[in-house]
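re: ur question from earlier - yeah i can do the single chain one, its not a big deal. heres the input i used so u can compare w yours
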Amino acid sequence: MIWLISTGTLVLGGVLLDLALGEPRRWHPLVGFGRLAGWIEQKSNHAVAGKAEGVLAWMLAVLPLVMLSQALIVLAAYFSVWLAAALHCVLLYACIGLRSLREHNLPIQTALEQGDLPQARRLTSYIVSRDTEHGDASYLAKASVESVLENGCDAVFGTLFWFALAGGPGAVLYRLSNTLDAMWGYKNTRFLQFGWAAARIDDVLNFVPARLTAISYALLGNSKLAWQCWRTQAPGWPSPNAGPVMSSGAGALAIALGRSARYDGVDEVRPPLGEGRAAIPSDIQRAWQLVWRTTWLWIAVLLSISLIWKGIGNA
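and the output i got, formated as tokens:
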């Protein structure tokens, strides 16, 4: 049914809703889901919980909401295909985070350019898990740029990919799975076994979107350097999907990311990302512009595919 209206048109509608409305200030669906997931984890992640309990918890958190979204689509289609199309757009709006990516990161650049390090540190602490209380301007700019590049895939392009494949329910499946990975996918004592399923499922769902994102970053930036960094640096990154996205993005911007970051008071040396000078505050805007251009590239491609599909159907 989604192809009857045009996937590209529905994607455009959902993105425009996000740009116009931004994330809900109250009753954000992902915030509510986070609370539900936290409750499920508390009830099921006991002392002897293993991978099986993690799989069951994932299913209890995600599948009922995916099935509910599908049921609502079917019910809406019973009354009107246009009502169903509108619901697809609303579901995409609820899952995508394009405008919020800008709203959470560009104020960091503003604070840094104004020399307000305490404000920049506070704002950066909202979007990353690394320590920020003693970070200088370059450290904070690097953290924000990395967040923009990685979350471009997690909050935008992965959602668009699964929406293109399965409509609103596909976007819901992906975004909820990605949220559970962010909550449960830690390799510590508490989540090593319980969070295994959440981490692996997110890896599977992100495999293709991450590489399409990396390709897009390379096409829209310093292509030669992006390809080179992807090929040589991504294999050394711990995450199989973040590696291609962030190495390609850093190369596309021709800046050096990765390397040292502090977590819980301990400095961790991570593989390098990109090549060139260190990140500066204005690179946050450059990273956002790369995500912005990639979004419209994807919309243009989906609209073109929809037109070709329609042409084939009418032939």
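The beta strands are 255-263, 266-274, 277-278. not sure if urs matches, ping me
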